[in-house]
């Protein structure tokens, strides 16, 4: 069984993924900024590690990662402050990738978003612009590393009950561009279990294909 580290361990998706991983026999260390969130992480089955990734150095992150089998990036600044968005979603994410290489952790699963790319088309006047820029830069950096990476790119997130089924891009023009957070959590688990997802960017929505099968076919 594997030993995973989730960065952004108190996030909604991470708190759904953690029990799925621990129920499968894996151990999960959950990086959190606020020590007040430790109890929720523990209730989900994770071991909390208090570390402010915005302030953490590459060496700090490498120390946290050393000995792990994979790192899962499920963190985010949450929008609203462009400077903090760049600091977390771009700079801290990139430091975590470099730290994974430094620590000898080969497997890296990034939770991104559907449409993340340098030519994302979001205008500078849009409040989403900083996030789009930050995620594009982070994903591009990840693709250039020596890591065994997978980029998961879900569409708009919902709180619907997870169906366990998704559809992967390319999608029909009339597709409903939504996916439940529970299904995103399941794609994390499936990607970690499916070696063929390495070096792939997988854009998806709620759909009709079993997640494990979709990951194999991605």
Give a verbal description of the structure.
The chain is an alpha/beta fold and 218 residues long. Helices cover 39% and strands 23% of the residues. It has helices spanning 12-23, 38-44, 58-65, 82-103, 129-143, 181-193, 211-217, and strands spanning 3-7, 27-32, 47-50, 70-73, 107-111, 148-154, 156-158, 165-168, 178-180, 200-206, 209-210. The strands form 2 sheets. The chain has a 9-stranded mixed sheet, with helices on both faces. Helix 1 packs across helix 6 (181-193) and helix 3 crosses helix 4. The longest helix is centred in the middle third of the chain and has 22 residues, at 82-103.
Radius of gyration: 16 Å
Structural class: alpha/beta
Widest sheet, order of strands: 3-2-1-4-5-6-10-8-11
- DSSP helix fraction: 25-40%
Based on Cα principal axes, name the global outline: globular
Strand content: 15-25%
Mean pLDDT, all residues: 97
Write the layout of secondary structure elements.
Elements: E1 3-7, H1 12-23, E2 27-32, H2 38-44, E3 47-50, H3 58-65, E4 70-73, H4 82-103, E5 107-111, H5 129-143, E6 148-154, E7 156-158, E8 165-168, E9 178-180, H6 181-193, E10 200-206, E11 209-210, H7 211-217
Parallel strand pairs: 1-2, 1-4, 2-3, 4-5, 5-6, 6-10, 7-9
Antiparallel strand pairs: 8-10, 8-11
Helix pairs in contact: 1-6, 3-4, 4-5
């Amino acid at each position: 069984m594997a030993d995973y580290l989730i960065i952004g361990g108190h996030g909604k998706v991470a708190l759904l993924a953690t029990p799925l991983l621990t129920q499968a026999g894996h151990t999960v260390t959950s990086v959190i900024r606020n020590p007040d969130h430790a109890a929720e992480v523990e209730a989900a089955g994770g071991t909390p590690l208090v570390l402010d990734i915005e302030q953490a150095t590459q060496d700090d992150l490498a120390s946290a990662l050393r000995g792990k089998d994979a790192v899962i990036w499920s963190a985010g600044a949450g929008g609203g402050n462009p400077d903090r968005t760049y600091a977390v979603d771009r700079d801290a994410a990139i430091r975590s990738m470099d730290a994974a290489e430094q620590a000898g952790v080969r497997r890296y699963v990034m939770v991104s978003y559907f449409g993340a790319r340098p030519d994302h088309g979001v205008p500078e006047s849009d409040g989403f612009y900083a996030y789009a820029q930050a995620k594009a830069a982070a994903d591009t950096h990840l693709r250039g590393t020596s890591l065994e990476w997978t980029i998961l790119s879900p569409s708009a997130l919902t709180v619907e009950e997870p169906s366990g089924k998704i559809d992967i891009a390319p999608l029909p023009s009339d597709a409903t561009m939504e996916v439940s957070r529970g299904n995103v959590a399941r794609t994390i688990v499936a990607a970690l279990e499916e070696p063929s997802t390495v070096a792939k960017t997988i854009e998806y929505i709620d759909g009709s294909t079993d997640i494990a099968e979709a990951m194999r076919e991605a």
